[in-house]
Amino acid sequence: MGLHFIDGNQAVAMGALYGGCNFFASYPITPASTLLSAMLDTLPAAGGIVLQGEDEIASIGYCLGASMAGMKVMTATSGPGLSLYSENISFAIAGEIPIVIVNIMRQGPSTGSATRGADSDVQFMRWGCSGGLPVIVLAPADVGDCFTLTVHAFNLAEHFRCPVFVASNKEIGMTSQTVDMDRVEKPPIIDRTLHESGLFLPFHVNPGEDVPSFLPIGGPILVRQTSSTHGQDGYITTDPSEIQAGVERLQRKIEANRESFSYFDLEERKGARTLLVAYGITAGAARAAASELFAQQNVPISVLVLKTLWPVPEHVLLRAAEGMERILVVEMNLGQYIQEVRRVLCNQRVDFYGKMSGQLISPGEITEEVMGG
Amino acid sequence: MDSLLNPDRPPVFCPGCSHERSVHVLDRALQSMGFVGSEVAIVSDIGCSGLFDTFFNTHAFHGLHGRALTYAAGIKLARPNLKVIVTMGDGGLGIGGGHLLAACRRNLDLTLLVLNNFNFGMTGGQFSCTTPEKASVSSSFLNALEKPFDLCHVAACAGAPFVARSSVYRKDLSELLKEAISFGGFAIVDIWGGCPARYMKKNPLSPKEIEEAMGKLPAYKGVVSANVRREYSGHYRQAAAKERAKDPWQGIEPIFEPAVKERREVVFLGSAGQRVITAGGLLARAALLGGMNVSQKNDFHITVMRGPSVTELILSPQPITYSGVEQPRVIIALAHEGVRRCWGLFEKMKKGGRIILAAGVEVPSTAGQILEVDFKAAGIKKKEMALAACFLLARDGDPITPEMFEEALKGSFQGKRLEEARLVLEKAATIPPFEGST
Q1: What global pTM score does this model have?
Q2: What pLDDT, in 10s, does the model give residues A103-139?
Q3: ipTM, 2 decimals?
Q4: Residues A280-297: pLDDT tens digits?
Q5: Residues A274, A187: one domain?
Q6: A58–B60: do the CB atoms touch at under 8 Å?
Q7: Which stretches of B62-219 are DSSP H helices?
Q8: How many structural domains are present in chain A?
Q9: What is the rounded CA–CA span in Å between residue A17 and residue A36?
Q10: Which domain holds residue A318?
Q11: Are residues B50 and B137 in the same domain?
């Protein structure tokens, strides 16, 4: 059916619709507001609900309520709005409320540059709310990924009952690209597991499982949701062993299963002694740099493009870095994800190149960095 | 009907707390209306009012301070037939003030019970947005400096169609709650009571004193006729049903051979309002019709009609991995703002590159060939210059052909806009070509 010429935000909207999203709420913020427009263009006509919240706190709040009433929800923002999401993100973690949060990152800190891209929030998404429990963060590298990873994000949010981020960037979200939608990966849809029979306790987990089965608020069986530390019945608990078991489960359900959703592309070149590690918009530049180096100077470089940033796909990093003399992490900030790479590859040389000027990192800059090292 | 109270979880309020009275009044109202637990959701947030949901055998949602109205709205929109009751304290009301205003304006069918006891009970008796200036509370002198607000007045001003104020001790409170709950829109009841643990230690607040204090404010007894209008959820569904899916995401089938075999980087340097992004989109569409891969990356300030507007296009027979422009083949320089933002780009241009330069715009020296165009003399307005420049590129056959351009024009513009565009192109046809062009 020919090529589509769409931007990343439109591709996220397409992915959301494909993934079963039927409730979207957000507050206008550049560079995420075109996603609100794209959702308004499509979701109401498809029978879904789109709300423009009075602020970001409300927008994510609407989503949490709707999700608990059984809808598949998504919200979208950028750095300053993400700051306001914080309390409700930790609620979604604690209350095990499925939600997809699209973060179209822009240059920071603070209000920063609204119309310039950067990967400002890579640590903030993981650590920016109380409790320190894990979330899932997926990072699209291009328009096609925006579609596919949004579908994955819905699937993961539903399956694990947790917040899942799609960590895009102004330079992906608002840059149009040709994409062959017929060839873009379309994962099968996963919905949350519903409680089927027997006594329903809203946070009860069957033996051998880590995720409670779901019933919606408003159905025939009473459901309780709470942001307070709770037992399996959804009432506050003060029992230290129950509290500890609860938070450990919230951590385990995400981290122990990470290998099942560690998305990445590894472009290996025979004889490579340097591994480029990149994600998001910078992945394209890293790939272009590696092909140029090989084509023009016969220098083989491997490129690892991470599409799952959190939980850190440690096994992927370890395997890709095997035998490498140098790992060069390239990111559109002053060095955030490199902290994780250094932690995992602690016995190897891990260098950094990055900037947060609002400009893309070019293949030429990466080439220079590779050769200069 | 049976009580909706949870026999296993009796209220745990302080002795003498007015909230306990509210719990029972709400239960009586729900009972007499014939509700069973599964037909009701109680949404609460932080503070003593946030305990309400635990005492009832209904659906329950307890969240963050001041945000109960937001969760409730999501639940109600998802489940229009569910009776959704929100409890908040005066503390939550203060921190969630924006949500209150939004709920009043939106008019979703929610019932908000404000359990107003003039202070933050749980955290130590600090002042809230309803604490009287003369009250003695744990925030030292601070409350004396701020005027408490009349939340009924605020709600009515913000558009709430049902606003009522009552002492928790009034005998008819249960009837009032029934009225509020059965009202088909946003209903708010400001229930005044006392906090024996904190507030009442230094501020006597007998039922009589509550009545006296309330008597000094305007009475709100329910329906605010000026604000009565359609309920949001039903209205939304009706309006949404009329929406037709705009499908802006149709694929574009190539119908031409590519005009060029190599990658081309084209940059429009303009100012906001010059429609350079639209013109870039037109060029992109034309190239797609020639089966090329395209990326279009835009750079602009947040000021809508001021400042530079830059659009960078890459047109390539091969897939595009990096969307930045590194070596422009064509620069369309239409305004100082855009040129100044990308001054260094001209240096990167190699021999064979071309520049369409609007007369009067200064550019740095470059290896490229310059076609200076007096758009104004040709009768082309500022906002049509980018469109005219696309035409000039097509006329030269690089990176698109006139046929691709024509097809893209018909695909992008309709009706009056298409007619306007054609007039622009007629004028553009009078512009002399690049030297050496055919």
Answers
A1: 0.97
A2: 999 999 999 999 999 999 999 999 999 999 999 999 9
A3: 0.97
A4: 999 999 999 999 999 999
A5: no
A6: no
A7: 68-78, 90-95, 97-106, 151-158, 173-182, 199-202, 207-215
A8: 2
A9: 13
A10: 263-372
A11: yes
